[in-house]
Structures are given as structure tokens and as C-alpha cells.
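Q: Here's a chain of 437 amino acids. Please give me its 3D structure as C-alpha cells.
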Amino acid sequence: MNRKSLITISWITFFIGTLTFVFFTDEKTPELYLLNMVIAGLYSFTISIGNGLVNDFLNRKYSWVEDTRTRTVLGIIGTLLVNIVLVLFCNYVNFIIYQKQDFAEFFSGTMGFVNWFTINISLLISAVLHAKGFIEAWKSSTRQEVVQQKLIAKSANAQFESLKNQLDPHFLFNSLNVLSALIDENPNQAQRFTSSMSKIYRYVLEQKDKELVTVEEEIEFAGTYCDLLKTRFEDSVTFDFNVNEKDLKSYVVPLSLQLLLENSIKHNFATSGKPLNIEIYSENGYLFIENNLQQREQMKESAGIGLSNIVQRYALLTKQNVFIEKSSDFFRVKIPILTQKKTAMNIPLSQESIAYQRASKRVKELKGFYGNLLSYCLVIPFLIFINVRTSPDYHWFWWPMFGWGLGLSLNAVKVFGISSNWEEKQIQKILDKENSK
């Protein structure tokens, strides 16, 4: 128990001691005021420290967030036992040891009612503290999860921007290599290539800040880029586009085709006798880039920027994978065609939203239950007091106590027992059964 808690208990002792001295003590003397403080401290410190030790022990063993049901059940059992024992101990010290009353009447008459009333007040205060501890733990967990998901989202966005920034220097470097080769081979073609390259680079600058572009836009750009490649390689390279019209309005990551076309040219040799045949087509929700394998010997190991860039960008946008297939005859890359626009931050933010909604719903349920419990603990002792004072021969308080208690028990079963968690499990079982058919 920390210093703040001890100060709070001291203030509670002061107010209770002062209140009992002012309203329930006939003789007003400093000695009696001090005695009231001692008795108030006996109750306050004994019950508070006892509940605090039990609460701290359970918090170390069971988390309010991860072990909610176990923590709640053990908390209720522990709170009942501790408060009954401690209240009876304090009342014994007060009535039997200090006031010298007959122990035979300890559980009956006025002392029996005081025992019952004090236990209920103690349980009421303990329930408030447990509810406060639960809400604080859940809010803390929710805040941590929100912060974590925001960090993931920022990290994903930064990583995506970094990947996109690779495209400019990568495209420019490869284009300049082609241009350098053309200057020596065919200066006129080099001039036309320079003019066309400026148009293509304009597209690169326009699209590089986008996370997704339509398949139609990407195919048009790839066609223009293929015309440039044919300027250099002439009949050594052929291109065949066969994309379904229904896929043209869907989305792919920008410049993915240009990177894959570069990859094919870079890693394969092409001659008039053995042309490199590149085919671009769509099938089953994927865009295929396939070429016959005529692998050239690499003077140095490739940096692998093209393929790894595409794989990483898709990983930030969707759970669908990029597939790379290679055999002795062909090399093929399958990139997912996305039917709706997404962003690199969609996945983390949706997880954050779901987690926050579930946490808010859970906190609302628990607040409702504890509010009901507090009302029960406060009202029922008051009804018992009224019943005993007005008609001691007929104990009608049992009816509201059992009726309300039954409703409270059903509410507890719903909140901590089978509620929505059970419903979700049953729904999932039905879905799994239907999917397996």
C-alpha cells in the first residue's frame, strides 16, 4: 500500500471519527474525541489494508484485461471472506473488548444488525474500489493498444513512403543505362528515346505519390514503356498484352509493371534468333508477367530492388501474396489485383478501432453491473433497517433481497459468464461448419 492510500485512509478516519463524535457522542470531551478517532482508525485501517493486500495479490496473479472472469470471481470470493472476517474482528474489539458487552448477543439483536450493516457498507466500498481498479486497468490497456496501433500505422506509412522513394532513382538509373547504350549504337534512336523518356518520367512523377493506380493506367504506361524497349531491342523482344476488360478498373501498386519488365530485360538475353517473349495477362484476380527463361550470366549479384519493392508494398496494403514462379522454361510473377482502394494505414487503424470498440463495450457492461451491485448493497441494508424498525415480527425484506439478488446474479452470469463471448464462439462454429461443406 502506497503513501497516497495511507493518506486517504487517514482522512477517512478523521471524517468518520469526527462525525461519530459530533452526532453520536453525548459527552463532548477531548478524551472521547480521541477515542472515537482510535475506533474509526481501527475500522478504516484494518478493513482498507486487508482489502488492499487481497487486491494487490490478485492483481499480481491475474490481469483485469486478460483474466477478467477469473479475476472477478476470485475478487468477489476474496472480498466477501476478507470483509466478513475483518468487520467481525473490528466489531468484536469494539463491542466485546472495549464496551464489555455480552458475547452471547454478538450475532443477535442490535450487535447482529450492526454486524450485518457494517459488512454491507464494507462490501459496498470494496465493490467501488474493485470497479475503479477494473476501469483503470482496462483504460490503461486500451490506451496502450491505441498507442501501439498508431505507432504501427506510422511505421507502416513511413516504410511505404521509403519504398516509393526507391522508384525515382531506380527508374532513372535503368533509363540512363538504356540511353547510354543507344547513344553508341544509334544516335537517332537515342534522341527519340530521350523524348519518350521525358513523357514516361512525367508519369512516374505523377504516380509515385499514389499508393494504388488502376490496372488500365498501369497497362497504358507499360505499353508506352514497351515501345521504348522495342526502340532499342527491335525484334529481339516481343510483348503480348491480354488483360481482361473487367480487371481494368481494379487496382495495382504503381510502376509495378515497369519494374517487372525491367527485371525481365535485365536478367535475360535477347537476340533476333532467340527473342525474349514477355506476356502480360490477368487471371483469377492476379496480373501475370511471364517471360521465357533465357537467363544471362550475372557479372555481379543483383540488388533485387524491383521484386522486393513490389513484395513489400503489397505486404503493407493487403494480406494477398505476390507469387514468384520459376522453372527451366519460364519465369512468372503474379501480383494481386485489388478490387478496392486501400491505404498502408488501413489495417492497423481498423484493428485499433475494433479493439477500442470492444473495450468500450466491455467497460460499459462492467460499469452497469457494478452500478447494480452498489445499488443492491446500499438499498437492501436500508430496507432491512426499515423492516426491523417498523415490523420486526414480519421479515418482508427477504422478498426484495432474493428477487433483486436473482436479477443481479443473472446479470453477473451475462457479464462474466456466457454473454457475447459464447455467442461469438457459436457463430464461428456454425461458419466453420458451413465453410467445410
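Q: Can you summarize the key feature?
A: Residues 109-165 form the longest helix (57 residues).
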